[in-house]
Every structure is written in structure tokens, then in C-alpha cells.
Known about the structure:
Helices cover 28% and strands 25% of the residues. The strands form three sheets. Strands 3, 4, 5, 11, 12, 13, 14, 15 and 16 form a nine-stranded mixed sheet that branches. A six-stranded mixed sheet has the order 6-2-1-10-18-17. α1 runs parallel beside α6 (152-165) and α3 (62-78) crosses α9 (351-368).
Amino acid sequence: MAKKKVGVIGGGIVGTALAYNLSLYDFIDVTLFEKDQIGSGTTAKSAGTVCLFDDSLPHQFWPVRLYGFQTYVNMEKAERGAAGFDKTGTLVVCTDEGVEKYTKTGIALAKSAGYEAEYFTDPGEIRKYFPDINMDCVLGAGWTADDGYFDPTMAANTFAKWTTANGGKVHTYTKVEDMIMSGDRVTGLVTDKGSFDFDVVVDASGPWTRFVSRKVGLELPIWHTKAEVFFLVPPNKKLDYDFPVLKYPRFYARPEGDNIFICKAHLTMDLNDEMHAGVWDPDELQPTGGTDDYFLEFLFSELEECAPNLLNSGLSFSWLGYRAEPPDFMPILGETPIEGYMLAIGCGGNGVIEGPAVGRDMAQYIAYGEESLLLKYLPLSRFEEQFDLSAVGTIQQP
Ligand SMILES: Cc1cc2nc3c(=O)[nH]c(=O)nc-3n(C[C@H](O)[C@H](O)[C@H](O)COP(=O)(O)OP(=O)(O)OC[C@H]3O[C@@H](n4cnc5c(N)ncnc54)[C@H](O)[C@@H]3O)c2cc1C
């Protein structure tokens, strides 16, 4: 029997996780196209935190979070360095009752899966993990030593390597320039290195999807939010304690060598605020720089309130990335009105967490037509009434 031919556009963490999962089916022939290097898009700009109970995903999606975490831990076990795990632990600081409640539920879920996790209200206990904390307005903090952050570019490269080991094809420096259509159906891709026929094409082009999807006459409800990262040099150039992954409701931070990686929390972004969000060309992003004073000022005002000792930090460098966010900040997965063209996009600020589950569930759907709960919850059709998906080239209000 002929194999089902699947083309994947984009070699970020989502596209590579999908390609790897597709390569596990011996009746699927998968080919991934990446216009640059593997993991060089949003994935390269990421913090890579995959925390057991920060507030990035609703608890309803706990299995997605757990599967993501366990996938990278197992990847690291299989090949040292394959996922670049830095097990720093995470401190989730709770400044209001809503976050406190969320964190306590998260702790219970993490414990039920066998991880160590605790909720502290004693300032002495909290300061053990973050000595610079200002306890004013802090109700308590959740702590786990079991998680930390990964290197998503490494993980994407490992997925790509495992894909080719399983017989899949990975074409880097190969740009998808057009889609081949037969009536309303996508039947292949035109790249700058030639044309390919496919039974199914999956768009996993992250923030580029806004432009890629126009080639099949779709205007997708994806906005770019500015993910502006600043690398701070702490006072005295080096901290005298191990900096954990630190999650506050409005910002987060993690160690980066002796420096501190700090960024505004993605769920605080307002898609209607042009300082936060818009539709921009991701090809114009530079490896470093491009950040706005607005975000640095915001982060320093947060530090003033939360950790004033760190205010004397210097700025080493910064970068700007675009998160691809649908209006509900959850991915768009599965079928579109164009037959043969599917989506694995819109992972926004959670693509590293979500990539493994998205890859697994999309592959299962392509292989057997079985929709997981994730795919059932997150189809493109949930936006059909709110947005005109055929109004190509227009920017509608989120
Ligand atoms: C600063 C920052 C911090 C973050 N922190 C976290 C975090 O802590 N935890 C977390 O889970 N998530 C985090 N995220 C989000 C996460 O990084 C993204 O959700 C994830 O990387 C998206 O992966 P992707 O594969 O969808 O997109 P991308 O990584 O952008 O991959 C898309 C790929 O498609 C390629 N492409 C585009 N067009 C074409 C074409 N025509 N032909 C061929 N290839 C094409 C691009 O070159 C690119 O490599 C963060 C993001 C940023 C920016």
C-alpha cells in the first residue's frame, strides 16, 4: 500500500515534534521544510521553561504540560544534552488569591504525578530559594525542585535527528514559496529547491503562518505579541545564590549563565494594545536588539516592587521575538476549510510546553483520523463566527 505523504512547513519545536511523531508510523512518509536552520525561529528566542505549576496553561491542560515535561526529561535521559535540561527548580510567587488557588491546585497535580512540590507562606522558607524577594504583598509561593528550563533549539534538533533516523526527510534552508492546489485541495508544495506532492500539508510556521496561510486563501486569527527579553547582569556581576526559574503573575525570570533572563509574562499581553501586539514580518527580526524602552521600564518597575536589590543590575543585551497568539491564547490545531491543509500553530507563549502533545495528537489524527481532546478543544472553527477567514490581507480586530 502507498504510504501517506505528509509535508510539514516549519522546523521549530512544533514542526519537529510533529515530524518526529509522524515518522513513528511506518505507513507515513514525512518531509519537513525549514527555510533556515532547525529551531532558529521563535524557538531560538524562547525561555524554554516547562514548569510543573506556573500559570501559563489552564489546569484543564495539565496532561499537555506533563507530557511536554516528561518528553524533554526522557529526551535528556536518552542522550545527554539532547534537550539541554537545567534543573533549577521553580518558585511561583503568589500575590493574589486567584494565583494562590491556581498554584495550590498545580502543586496537588504535580504531587499526584510523583513530583516534589510545596506551598510556603513563611518568608524564611521562600527566601531560601529567592533571597532577594520583597515579601510585601506576597501571600506565599509554590516551590518545586524537580523542573527548570530546557534548550528548545537543542530539543528541536533532536526531534529532527530522530525523524531522519526513522526514515523521515528534513530539508533545511528550503523555503516553501507556494502551495499546489487542485480545486479547493492542497496537493503539494513549491519550494525554492523544487516541488513536492503531498496528501496532507501541515502548517507549523509559527508567527510566519499569517503569511503562509494566505497562499491558500486563508487569513488566520493570529497576532504577534512582542516577547522582549532583557539579560541583566546582577549587582556584583554574579549572584551568591542559585537563581531559580522565577514566576510572578506579570513577569518571569530564569538564570542565563551568571546573568538573569527576564521577560513580561505572555498572558499579560493585550492584543488590542499596539505596544503589545500587531501583525509584523518575522523575517525582519534580528538575533539581538530591537526591543522597546517601554518593556525595560515595565520590568524595572516590577523589580522595584518585587526584588529591589536587583534594581542595580546592568543590562547585557536583549532580544525581541514574536509569539503567535490566537485571541484566546491557545493553539489552533487540525483541519481548515482547505482540504489537505492542516494547522499546528498559535502556540504563543507555550509552544515548548505544548509542542510534544501537539505533535503526538496531530500525528495520531493524520494517521488514524482520531481527534484527541486537545484537537477537539482547539479547532480553527472556534473562530469562524468572529473572523472572516477568507478576507485575505486584512487585519481584523482581535
Ligand atoms: C522570549 C520568549 C520566551 C518564551 N518562553 C517560553 C517558555 O518559557 N515556555 C514555552 O513553552 N514557550 C515559550 N515561548 C514560546 C515558544 O518559544 C513558542 O511558542 C515556540 O517556539 C513556537 O514554536 P513553533 O515551532 O510554532 O514556531 P517557530 O519556532 O517560529 O518555528 C517556525 C519555523 O517555520 C519556519 N518557516 C516559516 N516560514 C517558512 C516557509 N515559508 N518555509 C519553510 N520554513 C518556514 C521558520 O523559519 C521557523 O523556524 C517563548 C517565546 C519567546 C519569544
